[in-house]
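Task: sequence design from structure.
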């Protein structure tokens, strides 16, 4: 399955007079889950039609394939385009609306985000510890 890469993970671009596309991205490897910096080996010059690249994971040598769709309304802004990776990332993303959920305490939100980061990096012992801390910050569980 394909997954879209958040533009905040674009680290540098490659551009010409037609379009600007991501050149370096920091993402979790779809195979081994480590967070790594990938330099995208684009198979053509940046264009508005379709951009395809491959990159090898520095950790496991797994081959990732990337597709970038340029936003025709602002082709020189890579952040307005859409970058996809195949196979899709197994990275878990925070629940939408979590940051603005006022009934949840800040320690609970921090514990949740720490557990998520530990999980996404494949640190299973840390994930277990952070999950226990998360449960400890839940009022219903902590009072039992
Ligand atoms: Zn890997």
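Answer:
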């Amino acid at each position: 399955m394909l997954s879209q890469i958040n533009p905040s993970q674009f680290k540098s671009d490659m551009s010409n007079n037609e379009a600007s596309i991501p050149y370096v991205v920091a993402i979790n490897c779809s195979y081994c889950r480590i967070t790594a910096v990938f330099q995208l080996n684009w198979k053509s010059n940046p264009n508005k039609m379709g951009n395809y690249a491959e990159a090898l994971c520095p950790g496991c040598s797994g081959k990732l394939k990337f597709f970038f769709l340029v936003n025709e309304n602002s082709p020189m802004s890579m952040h307005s385009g859409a970058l996809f990776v195949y196979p899709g990332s197994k990275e878990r993303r925070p629940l939408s609306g979590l940051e603005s959920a006022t009934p949840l305490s800040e320690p609970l939100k921090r514990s949740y985000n720490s557990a998520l980061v530990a999980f996404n990096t494949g640190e299973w012992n840390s994930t277990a510890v952070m999950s226990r801390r998360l449960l400890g910050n839940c009022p219903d569980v902590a009072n039992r």
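The longest helix spans residues 106-120.
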